[in-house]
Structure formats: structure tokens, C-alpha cells
Write a structure and sequence with these properties.
The complex is a heterodimer of chains A (about 450) and B (about 290). Chain A is globular, with a radius of gyration of 28 Å. Chain A has 18 helices and twelve strands. In chain A, helix 2 links the parallel strand 1 and strand 2. By secondary structure, chain B is mostly helical. Chain B has one domain: MetI-like (MetI-like fold, Orthogonal Bundle). In chain B, about 75% of the residues lie in helices and about 0% in strands. Chain B is built from 13 helices and two strands; from the N terminus they run H-E-E-H-H-H-H-H-H-H-H-H-H-H-H. In chain B, strands 1-2 form a two-stranded antiparallel sheet. In chain B, a hairpin with an 8-residue loop joins strand 1 and strand 2. In chain B, helix 9 runs antiparallel to helix 10 and helix 12 runs antiparallel to helix 13. Chain B starts with a helix and ends with a helix. The chains are: A alpha/beta (about 450), B mainly alpha (about 290). At the A-B interface, helix 3, helix 4, helix 17 and helix 18 of A face helix 12 of B.
């Protein structure tokens, strides 16, 4: 045998022996205790990220379980990410859904979301009872719902919100109005418009360029003028949008425009611009959600304002405002860590953590027991929680195309391009088209 | 040996073919396939609807066709205003003027800026309450013309089109400048010897030789402008009402607003076919122009 070949053979033997011994020794050594799982949470709430991180650290110290909050913003990008992850079946342990109840139902039907009802009802419903019923309703599918989803609670509300009107007390004084007495009726509201016009000020600002807020105010007045049952009948296709009550709702926007109570450029205004204008004392009224308390505080800590219900246009039915769960988390039904995820959400929505979140983010807590610890302006928003409604609790959704035609139609009324009657007819045409398309699909 | 060489060649091409197939061909086939279905983007089940989505786009979706006309209007402004400006500036910078490199740099700044930033800046300029444009108009005694440019249906689309042209003229400027620099100087000298003045040189030498370049710029302008949407989202969000809606915004609305992924794909295919048809017509037109 040649010396070089012998040398190679010896080297190979040494290497083999070393590897064999290494594997054997490592294999026989005591097994390391399995690491505690990490729960992954996807969310879009930029303003809550620091508070979530702080709570995650607290939870790890308490339970040894790491919770990784992953922020994906803006909300549009987040929404796309969640849908793409659902298609690839790689959703995180906990996530939120942005969209209509119809989308939520599709996620449930596709098996992506865990039914939390058994957990909510443990210990005589202690968890369920600690949360605002309205906020839970947004995450609930009731028996016989129109989406065909098995009844149950499928999400945990993290906070609640209401969308109301705000008025600037300093500008009220300048207009010669009593800052402690905001308008109660629609006529009083319109009369403020005349004063605003005279003083060359800007009236109501809101994110009506983004449309959903127009829909929100229009629905408030639909409930006030015709009541919930008739609104629901319209959604079912039993009452047309050309009904005089709907025309009356649309006419309110025409009246607001003519009175001067709406700020100019409102139809293309995004909510961020509206918030800046109101926070900087440039607008008398705003239509915004309870999250605005935090926003206004950051923009102008000295802003002197109050919250009010939209002035009622009719005495027939009570005024309803949109509200309920501001944001909710769902548990991935396919996650191997779903039990741990549920435990974490139970902890996150407990009184102490909710009070911390409310304090840090100035959002209304979902836990009723935390309400005593919130700032007074937020309490004003919370006061009207009983009057809230939300499309997600109606059990039936309007077609998106109809909502778009309705909201764009209101924009057309405001810019003086169409009459309420024309818009009502156009919306009804879209409704009929969608109804017939939906019957065709079924 | 020859087979081995051929195989080797294929191996070299393979990575590019795989990447192109995975990221272009397969998604394209899926988009075409999805256009035949009704699907909400979440449920694993899709309902086959055949050509119903296409039928709805062509015969029922008036807003879609309104958005097409509006994109066409923005394109028309871009083809005329934007490209005329680009050509004139390129022609000026091609001449022996002082600081011409500085101007070249300045003219190319708008295209490299983010569309969102440009949109937001112009939104402030055109704002009805505190906008600079209204302020300047008032300062020069034309306060009567002041308005909310982006919220007024009479001006919103034109305002968006003008801003789009301002943002995009730099590309045309660069291509025109490159085209002008390829024209041999001898041609101008020969024209001068033959008694041509500056105007004659421009119309008889510069313009004919720039036609192929203008056609290229025209095709790029049509394709780029018809697909514009970021600037519009930043400036108006597609409003007021439907006055600044363009096809890409309608596709987004179908996908994100209505959760109709199949319909959105059908809109995308229809839009693609229309763009290809326009490009084909332009190409034929440019061939004829070259022959003339």
C-alpha cells in the first residue's frame, strides 16, 4: 500500500470515529427541557405597538411564554397580508381581521378561526361577562345568521369605540353660542351653519373622502328617521332605497351643504386632514371616533372641545351611533398553540391590562371594570355606549357595491351634482342588479 | 457532443426561465383563470361563472367605462401638455446655453420624487382653505378664481392631470434629449449652407428625425398614464364622487372594497387587452409616420 493512501485511510477512520462518538454522546445526554412556546400576534395598530410590547414583557415575566407582536401597517397592507396568509394556511396564532362581517364569516367558514364560546362561558361566563356586550356582539354569529356560520363568539375585543360629533368650545364662544349647549336637533344644527358661513369659518370636518364615515352618519340618521327594522328590511331587499324615508336621509346632506355647516372640500377630505383642522381650531365640528381623544391630545393638548350625539332629525326613533368593538383579535383554529393563545387573550382583556391599555392609548377599554380609570372626555364617549349599533351586529350585510353607490351618491349631493331622488334611484338600481346577481350565483 | 452543447445552453437559460415562469407566466395564467370565477379571496371554494365577469364589465359597469374615459383624458393631457413641455425643454437644453447641466438635473427631479409625496404636496398647494394657489391668486387680484380645486368636479380631474404631467415630463425630457443628441450636426450645417433659417432647420431636420423618438415617448406616456393611480389616491382618493376614478382604482375597489377577486382579475385582463390594442395602433401609426 502506498504511504499516501494509507495516510488518507487513517485520516478517514479518525474522522468517522470522531463523528460516531459525538453523535452517540450527544444522543445519550440528558434531553433539554422543551422551550416554552412563542405566541405570534399580527396587528396593524401603530399607536398601540409600544403598549403591546410592554404587556408582552409583563406576560413573559409572569408565564414564561413569549408573545411576539408583529406590526404590519398601514391597515390596507395588513389586510392583504392576512388574506394571503389565509390562502397559504400560515396565519399566526393570533390575528385581527379588517373588513366587513362578510369577510369575517369567510375566514370562519374556511376554518381559520377558533370558536371561543366554550372559553368565554367557562366559570359561569366570567370572561364573557367582563366585556361590553356590544363589543362581543361584533365578534359573534347568532343562530340563523345570514352568513351560514355556526353560532358562536369568534373574536376577543381589545377595545371599544363610538363615533360621535365633536364641537370646538372656543369657536362656539366666538360664534356667540353657549359652549355647554351643543345643538340637540337638526334644525338647531343647521342654524349654526348660517353663523359659521357669516363668520367665514369652516363647519363640520370628517374623513368623508374615505367614504365609510359618510356611510356611518347616513346610517345614524336612517335609524333615527325610519328605525332599525326598516333599515334591516332595506338590506334584505324588501324596502327600496327610493322609499321616502331614505330620500329624507339623503336630503339631510343636501340641507347640511346648503346651510354652510359642512366644511368646503369635505368630499375629498381624509380623516387625518380633518383631525388636523379640528385640532388646530380651524373647524367648528368634527365627526370622528373615540380614538380621536388620543390624536387631538398629541396634535394640540390645549384643544377645548366636547363630544355630542349627532343632532336628531326626527322624534320617531332614537338616534343610533356606530360603536362596539374597536379592534378585536382572533385565534387561529389551526395553531398548535391555540390553548396558550386563548390564555393570553384572557389575560390581555383582564381589568388591569385593559386599564393600562386605556391609559397608554386613550382608547375605550373592552373590559367594563376598567371604565372608572379613564379620562373624562373618553368617559363622555363611553356614556353613549348603549346607543351604539354597528353593521357587524346586524346579522346581514349590504352589498359593497350598494354601499359604494350610496356613499358616492352622497358625495354627489354635497357637490351639488345630483338630487337626493336621483341618488336614491341610482342606488336602488345597483341594489337590484346585485340582488339578481346574488340569486344567479345561488 | 452537439446534444451536450445544446443541453448545456439550456441549463444556462434554465434559471431565467424558471424565475420568469414563477413570477410572470404562472401568475398571469392564474389571473386569467380567476377571471372566470367568483371568489372572495378568503374561502377555498370558487364559483365558476364563465365569461359573466367580462359581460358585466363590458355591458353593465358604467363606472368602469367612466374611469376609462377619465384615464384617457389624463393621458391626452400628458400626451400634449407633458410631452410638448418635455420636448421644448429638451430642445432648449440641447442648445449651447449656460447652466444646461443644472437645468437637466432640475428637470429630472419630479420623476424621481415619490408619487405619494408629490400628491400630498400638491394637495396642500391646491387646498381650498389654506392652499398656496388660492393665496397667490388672491395676491394678484384674481381671488374670484379661487376654489377648492380637488373637491370641485369641474376642476378635480384636470388638476390631477396637470400634476401628473408635471411629475412625469422629466422622463420624456430625458428621452427627447437623448434623441436630439443623436442628430448629426452635419445635417444642420448642410441645411444652413442650403439657406435654411433656424425655423426651417427645426421643421425640416429636427422634427422629422425626432418622430421615432416621439412615438416611443408617446407609447410610454400612454402606458404609464393609463396605469397611474398612486398620485390620484394621494390627491383625491378617486373623488369627489367618481370624478377622478381610473381603471386601476376600480380594480382595487373590486378587490379590496367588494372582495370580488375574480371580477378584479377580469377587469385587469380587460384593461390589459385595451392597453395592448392602443399600443398596437400606436405602433402601426408610428410605422406609417416613419415611411412618410
Amino acid at each position: 500500500m502506498e504511504p499516501a493512501a494509507a495516510c488518507c485511510k487513517r485520516f478517514g477512520f479518525v474522522v468517522f470515529t470522531f463523528l460516531f462518538l459525538s453523535v452517540t454522546i450527544l444522543g445519550c445526554s440528558a434531553q433539554k427541557a422543551p422551550a416554552k412556546p412563542t405566541i405570534t400576534v399580527w396587528h396593524w395598530m401603530t399607536d398601540r405597538e409600544p403598549a403591546f410590547q410592554a404587556l408582552s414583557e409583563q406576560y413573559e415575566a409572569l408565564s414564561g411564554i413569549k408573545v411576539a407582536f408583529e406590526l404590519y401597517a398601514p391597515s390596507d397592507a395588513y389586510s392583504q397580508k392576512v388574506r394571503a396568509a389565509a390562502q397559504g394556511a400560515n396565519l399566526p396564532d393570533i390575528f385581527g381581521i379588517l373588513g366587513e362581517k362578510r369577510d369575517f364569516a369567510s375566514f370562519v367558514k374556511a376554518g381559520h378561526i377558533l370558536d371561543l364560546t366554550p372559553f368565554m362561558e367557562e366559570n359561569a361566563g366570567a370572561w364573557k361577562n367582563s366585556l361590553f356586550a356590544k363589543s362581543l356582539a361584533v365578534n359573534e354569529f347568532t343562530p340563523g345568521n345570514s352568513y351560514g356560520v355556526a353560532p358562536g363568539i369568534y373574536g376577543v375585543p381589545i377595545d371599544v369605540m363610538t363615533i360621535q360629533m365633536l364641537y370646538n368650545k372656543d369657536l362656539f364662544r366666538q360664534l356667540g353660542l353657549n359652549p355647554e349647549k351643543p345643538p340637540q336637533t337638526f334644525d338647531e344644527f343647521l342654524s349654526v351653519g348660517a353663523k359659521i358661513k357669516e363668520a367665514n369659518m369652516q363647519g363640520l370636518v370628517s374623513g368623508w373622502g374615505e367614504m365609510w364615515m359618510i356611510d356611518c352618519l347616513a346610517n345614524n340618521y336612517a335609524f333615527n328617521i325610519m328605525g332599525k327594522d326598516k333599515v334591516m328590511a332595506t338590506l334584505r331587499g324588501e324596502v327600496p332605497y327610493t322609499d321616502p324615508d331614505w330620500v329624507k336621509v339623503l336630503t339631510l346632506f343636501e340641507q347640511m351643504q346648503k346651510s354652510g355647516v359642512l366644511a368646503s372640500g369635505l368630499v375629498t377630505m381624509v380623516n387625518k386632514t380633518a383631525e388636523q383642522l379640528f385640532a388646530n381650531n380651524k373647524a367648528v365640528f368634527a365627526f370622528n371616533g373615540s380614538w380621536c381623544v388620543n390624536v387631538y391630545k398629541a396634535m394640540n393638548p390645549n384643544l377645548n372641545y366636547g363630544a355630542m350625539l349627532p343632532p336628531k332629525a326626527s322624534d320617531n326613533y332614537p338616534m343610533a351611533i356606530w360603536g362596539g368593538a374597536g379592534s378585536s383579535f382572533m385565534v387561529n383554529a389551526r395553531s398548535p398553540r391555540k390553548e396558550e393563545a386563548v390564555k393570553f387573550l384572557r389575560w390581555l382583556t383582564a381589568s388591569q391590562q385593559q386599564a393600562y391599555l386605556a391609559e397608554e392609548t386613550k382608547n375605550l377599554p373592552a373590559n367594563k371594570e376598567s371604565l372608572s380609570k379613564i379620562p373624562s372626555l373618553l368617559a363622555q364617549f363611553a356614556k353613549n355606549m348603549d346607543q351604539t349599533t354597528h353593521p357587524n351586529i346586524w346579522g346581514i350585510s349590504e352589498f359593497s357595491q350598494v354601499i359604494e353607490a350610496f356613499d358616492k351618491g352622497i358625495q354627489s349631493i354635497i357637490i351639488g351634482e345630483k338630487t337626493p331622488e336621483q341618488v336614491a334611484e341610482e342606488v336602488q338600481k345597483v341594489k337590484e342588479r346585485e340582488l339578481s346577481r346574488s340569486r344567479g350565483s345561488n | 457532443m452537439r446534444i451536450r452543447d445544446t443541453l448545456e445552453n439550456y441549463v444556462f437559460v434554465l434559471p431565467a426561465v424558471v424565475i420568469f415562469s414563477v413570477f410572470y407566466i404562472i401568475p398571469f395564467v392564474w389571473v386569467v383563470q380567476l377571471g372566470l370565477y367568483e371568489w372572495d379571496g378568503i374561502l377555498p371554494t370558487k364559483i365558476f361563472v364563465g365569461l359573466r365577469n367580462f359581460h358585466e364589465i363590458v355591458f353593465q359597469d358604467k363606472i368602469w367605462w367612466q374611469s376609462m374615459w377619465q384615464a384617457g383624458y389624463i393621458t391626452l393631457i400628458a400626451l400634449t401638455l407633458q410631452n410638448a413641455l418635455a420636448f421644448l425643454l429638451a430642445w432648449a437644453c440641447d442648445r449651447e446655453i449656460r447652466l444646461k447641466n443644472f437645468y437637466r438635473l432640475i428637470f429630472f427631479i419630479p420623476p424621481v420624487l415619490s408619487e405619494v409625496v408629490v400628491g400630498l404636496v400638491w394637495q396642500w398647494i391646491l387646498d381650498g382653505h389654506y392652499g398656496l394657489l388660492n393665496h397667490w391668486l388672491s395676491a394678484i387680484g384674481l381671488g374670484g378664481l379661487a376654489r377648492n380645486w380637488l373637491a370641485d368636479p369641474a376642476t378635480a380631474l384636470t388638476a390631477v392631470a396637470v400634476v401628473h404631467s408635471w411629475k412625469g415630463f422629466g422622463w420624456g425630457f430625458l428621452i427627447f434629449l437623448a434623441g436630439l443628441q443623436t442628430i448629426p450636426k452635419e445635417l444642420y450645417e448642410a441645411a444652413r449652407v442650403d439657406g435654411a433659417n433656424a425655423w426651417s432647420s427645426f421643421t425640416r431636420v429636427t422634427i422629422p428625425l425626432m418622430i421615432p423618438v416621439a412615438m416611443l415617448v408617446g407609447i410610454l406616456t400612454v402606458l404609464g398614464t393609463m396605469q397611474a393611480f398612486v398620485l390620484i389616491i394621494a390627491m383625491t382618493g378617486g373623488g369627489p364622487a367618481y370624478h377622478t376614478q381610473v381603471p386601476v382604482l376600480r380594480i382595487l375597489a373590486a378587490m379590496r372594497g367588494s372582495s370580488r377577486f375574480g371580477y378584479a382579475c377580469a377587469q385587469g385582463i380587460t384593461f390589459g387587452i385595451i392597453l395592448m390594442a392602443i399600443s398596437f395602433i400606436q405602433y402601426r401609426f408610428s410605422r406609417k409616420a416613419r415611411q412618410v
